[in-house]
Design a protein that fits this description.
alpha/beta
């Protein structure tokens, strides 16, 4: 990417567009009563996914942007899991018929902070209250530093087939600067334990733009991780938002890479991973050519949700746990963020919904355009408009931001088709933002565009 374009666009704070509208637009106008009605209206045959949030870790990584709490004791986790079980029961009883579940994702925090027995009890509760089938995909996020062999075995017994392992960087200097010490050897051992337990699909998360990071250290980490042969990589740019995540104030801002260095690191990782046989997927994912994500991308079936790029085509996502976000056909809902408030709401016998957003027809249209841009780097506004019974071409009228990107060669327009230039794919969020009707004052909570 050329220097003038990086200077002009690279430092902009933009959403990652894992949803549209984005979470800052959620409000108390959608409450527990509204969500209860949405659950009751969920069609019995609706393709449904579950997201369960486990908001606990053993130590705080200073780069972290997740909702999590630090605990050295097991008691808070056990108490939380009891409340989570009660919420599962409350939500399931609100549906007219037990939904059929296509996908389950455990996020955190560190979901594997729970003991093996507790995980199996939780999986049994989910299978009892919802309808699983032989191909229900179950995935979990893991901190390799704390994964025991017994927990790996329990994951396999519980039906988990995909695990996402946080690595970020294997550079000791970077690890010291973000308070996450993790060796490649320990990571490889965790992967071996998971595969031996039947968790065959492995994802590895990497981050660029961290303190003291260089192109060389990014490439060294990428190649070391690629040697473990995970099926997928997710490569994210570090979002430094200390006003939003106060523990990020412990990160030394003076040694954070700038926009040019960040872009160079991202491209260096891309070259290393594609050279190692991985296919580049969307903005920030990589997959082996025979992985389902790569196949979906090649067939135009790639989707984007709160977990990033996915093959999940569910019509509804039921969020469970503190701060979890769900998506129903009518709109979005989010649970109380604070664990004590979440627990009180559930113990009182009510849904833990704190806020949400009711989608309009135009929201759905814009969301479809943004999703195709994020997934395919191309959006056929005419075709999308016909699918939604609306004139999507009108989104081009008076779109000064998009016109500026076209003049700069970042995007092109042929008829009603908007395409992101291959040389500027890391600015795809900048193009997507041209179709965001709400982008404004909440930008401080978002990561840099490049």
């Amino acid at each position: 990417m050329t220097t003038p374009l990086l200077d002009k666009y690279g430092a902009a704070r933009l959403p990652r567009y894992t949803s549209y509208p984005t979470a800052p637009l959620f409000s108390a106008a959608v409450d527990a009563q509204a969500y209860g009605g949405w659950l009751a209206d969920l069609a019995p045959d609706a393709r449904t996914a579950l997201y369960l949030h486990i908001p606990f870790c053993r130590a705080m990584c200073w780069y972290c942007g997740c909702h999590t709490s630090i605990t050295r004791r097991d008691a808070p986790v056990e108490e939380y899991l009891a409340v989570l079980g009660a919420e599962i029961d409350l939500v399931a009883r609100r549906t007219a018929e037990r939904p059929v579940i296509d996908d389950v994702h455990f996020g955190g925090g560190t979901p594997t902070i729970m003991c093996p027995e507790a995980f199996l009890v939780l999986m049994a509760a989910l299978r009892d209250r919802f309808r699983f089938h032989a191909d229900t995909a179950i995935a979990i996020e893991i901190d390799p530093r704390t994964l025991s062999r017994a927990m790996a075995a329990a994951l396999g017994e519980g039906g988990v087939r995909r695990a996402s392992l946080g690595v970020q960087s294997f550079d000791p200097q970077v690890q010291q600067a973000i308070n996450r010490l993790q060796s490649a050897e320990r990571t490889a051992e965790a992967i071996a334990d998971l595969r031996a337990a039947g968790v065959a699909s492995i994802n590895i998360d990497l981050i660029y733009g961290l303190p003291h990071q260089t192109e060389r250290s990014c490439v060294d980490t990428a190649l070391a991780a690629a040697a473990m042969r995970p099926q997928r990589f997710a490569v994210f740019g570090y979002a430094h938002v200390p006003s939003f995540k106060k523990h990020q104030r412990l990160v030394d801002e003076s040694v954070l890479p700038g926009a040019h260095a960040r872009n160079a690191q991202a491209e260096a990782i891309a070259a290393a991973l594609t050279g190692a046989g991985y296919r580049r997927i969307g903005l920030d994912h990589y997959a082996l050519p025979d992985d389902s994500l790569a196949l979906a991308e090649g067939e135009g079936r790639l989707r984007r949700n709160f977990q990033g790029y996915t093959t999940d085509a569910s019509e509804a996502l039921i969020g469970l746990g503190a701060s979890s976000i769900g998506q129903m056909p009518q709109g979005f809902v989010q649970n109380e963020v604070a664990t004590h408030t979440y627990a009180r709401r559930v113990r009182d016998g009510g849904l833990a919904t704190a806020k949400g957003y009711r989608l309009t027809r135009e929201d759905r249209l814009r969301a479809a355009v943004i999703e195709r841009l994020m997934c395919d780097f191309r959006a056929d506004l005419g075709g999308i408009g016909r699918a939604y019974g609306m004139d999507a071409g009108s989104l081009l009228d008076g779109n000064d931001r998009l016109d500026g990107l076209v003049r700069d060669g970042i995007a092109s327009i042929e008829g009603d088709v908007v395409t992101v230039s291959g040389d500027h794919r890391f600015l795809v969020r900048t193009v997507a933002a041209c179709f965001d009707a709400y982008l404004g004052g909440s930008g401080r909570t978002h990561g840099q565009a490049a």
